[in-house]
Amino acid sequence: MPNYWLMKSEPGVFSIDDLANCPNQTEHWDGVRNYQARNMMRDQMHKGDLVFFYHSSCKNTGIAGIAKVVKEAYPDHTALDPDSAYFDPKSTVDNPRWFMVDIRFVEKFTHLVSLQHLKENPLLKDLPLVQRGSRLSIMPVAEKQWNEILAMVPGR
DNA sequence: GCCAACGTTGGC
DNA sequence: GCCAACGTTGGC
């Protein structure tokens, strides 16, 4: 059984369309700089897990589609690159502080499941995404929540 | 652009 | 270990 996740991305930076247009429709998920998110990604995210791709900080916030984990956590090289916005001087080759996984495009929803609709569904009240003040960029999704959200996808 | 909420840093 | 200051996230 796969685990289920939700990962946020700003579509102005990297959208689900960008993922679909990558070589092999696969890209590494760099730039995670939050320990809670890192720990989940590093310790609990496994090959074959499914991911809701969430568009944040944009006009239409919500879940835009599905991706899947195709490579488990390995060091995030952008932390070692002084020219990267994600550079972290405290991360080293021998002792990497930040990690990333590779994900592959699976499906784009014809219409996204909006944050507003997610918030309105009482069955999703425990999802960190809809909780007040939550800023987690990677979060687990329970199987029941996953199925509930899938049932909310317009036209699916 | 605003700002509430949160995470991190660093002095003590 | 406390906590004030600061930086970031992300919805609105």
TrEMBL record:
Gene3D superfamilies: ph1033 like domains
SUPFAM superfamilies (alphabetical): PUA domain-like (SSF88697)
Pfam families, A to Z: EVE (PF01878)
Domain EVE: 3-152
InterPro entries hit by this protein: 5hmC_binding, EVE_domain, PUA-like_sf, THYN1-like_EVE
Swiss-Prot/TrEMBL keywords: Phosphoprotein
Phosphoprotein found in the keyword field: yes
Name of this protein: EVE domain-containing protein
